[in-house]
Structures are given as C-alpha cells and as structure tokens.
Amino acid sequence: MPFAQLTSKLLRVPLLHSILLLAAAWQPTCAQGADETLLPYAVGIHQTPMQSWGPGSGIYLGKGLFITAAHVAGRTWLTRPKVAIAGLEYPTRVVKEGSFEGTDLTLLSVDEALLPVRLRLRRNSICAEPPRPGQEVVTIVPGSAVRSHILSPDRLPAGTRSRFSTVIADVARTGNSGSGVFDVKRKCLLGIMSRKISQPKYRPDTRKMETRDIAKYFVPASEIAAFLPAHLQL
After folding, report:
1. pTM of the full structure
2. Residue among 63, 117, 103, 108 nearest 90 (CA)
3. Domain map (residue ranges) of the chain
C-alpha cells in the first residue's frame, strides 16, 4: 500500500473514533436539555406553617391551575397550602380535594395575574395514551429532571398490582410525592407521583426482615383527566 494511502487510512480511524465519542457525549446532553424544558412546570407546595418533612411538589397545568398529591397539600381547610415559585409563595384557592386513600390528587388555583409571565403563557398537555411497561419517562421537581421507565405491574407484590399498577422503577433518585411524571417523547403529563411501594425481604446474614423500596406509584393521566372539573378541562 502506498505511504500516502496508508497515512490517509490511519488518520481516518482516530477521526472516526473521535466523532463517535462526540456523538455519544452529545446525545445525553441533548436529552438532558430537552428534559429541562419541562422544569418551569414544577413548583413547590407549602403548607401553612411549612410541613415538618419539607416542601412538597406540584405541577402547573395552565390557566392558574396547579395539581399535586392530596397528602402533600393535606387537609386544605387546615393547612392553607401555597404554591412556591422561585422563592415566592402564592396564596391558593382549593378547586378540588382528593384523599390519600382515594384519588391522591388536589387541584389548586392561583390568580393568574399574580403569576410570572413565563408561567402564565404555558399550557401543560395531559397524555391521552396509557403508560406502557418499558416506556421512558422523566420525573420533574423544581430544579431537577430525572429519567426512569415504567415498570410492568407483574414486578409488584401481588396485593398491590390491581390498585397501584402505574409505577416507575428508579426509587432513590426520582421525584417524590406531588412531582410530575412526563412522557419523554411527547412531553405530556403521564401522572403525579403518589407513594413508594415497598416489599419485606429476609436477609440471611442478619437474620432480619428489611423493607426494600421496589417502585414508585403515580396517579395516571386518565385519573387526572377524570379528576378535573368539566368546566376546567384544559
């Protein structure tokens, strides 16, 4: 092989390798950037006074409406929940209140004129299609977007499969109660995080039973849509 041809071939190999490395590095960064476009929808939910376990989360739907888990807002006549955005608290009106043992959702309203303009102009779409096992999702809380995926109900303890069938896999890193679960591709709201699902496990080394978190249940989009009063459908 001529020297010039050999040199050209050798130069192309590291160049191709560099391109592949750059492409691999660019894809997660691009995905992260796409997920971060959802961050403005995430807000804090503060009881009055602030709950001892720390601030909860909620999701902006549009038209001054915010949705969170019912147990995050608490018994609203007593807790007087506020929406927190960028360090400021906004008083709310309770539109509809669910319950932890029923539909774990509460819908709050804030006077749109009080909200930041960047939020007033937004509208959040609720997914029309049900979640499916393996589907990639992103959980959103104020300042953080973390990816996970939908688990099959078959992975859950038998006693929880029928009631808590919509779950995600990553328990430790994803958002807690009231955070939003979004479809990665369509950027629509798949659900509102409600609770952890745990399972007892025997450890032979300690001869003790330990509780292991195996999934997080979210109230699915279909229940959110049914929960919204008819005159407030987005």
Report:
1. 0.82
2. 108
3. 136-226
Which pLDDT does position 20 carry in this prediction?
40
Q: Assess contact for 192 and 181: CB atoms under 8 A.
A: yes
Rounded CA gap, 191 and 59, in Å? Answer: 10
Q: Tell me how far the alpha carbon of residue 48 is from its chain's centroid.
A: 24
Average pLDDT, the chain: 85
Q: Report the amino acid identity of residue 111.
A: D
d(CA 25, CA 176): 29
Query: Strand 180-183 relative to strand 189-203: parallel, antiparallel, unpaired?
Result: antiparallel
What span, in angstroms and rounded, lies between the C-alpha atoms of 118 and 171? 31
What is the residue type of 202? Answer: Y
Continuous H helices in 94-177: 117-120
Q: What is the DSSP string of 25-88?
A: HHHHHHHHHHHHTTGGGEEEEE-SSPPTT--EEEEEEETTEEEE-HHHH-SHHHH--EEEETTE
What is the SS3 assignment for 117?
A: helix
> Please, what is the Cα angle at 228 between 171 and 86, to 5 degrees?
60
Burial 216-229 (b: 16+ CB within 10 A, else e): bbbbbbbbbeebbe
Element holding 3 (H helix, E strand): helix 3-36
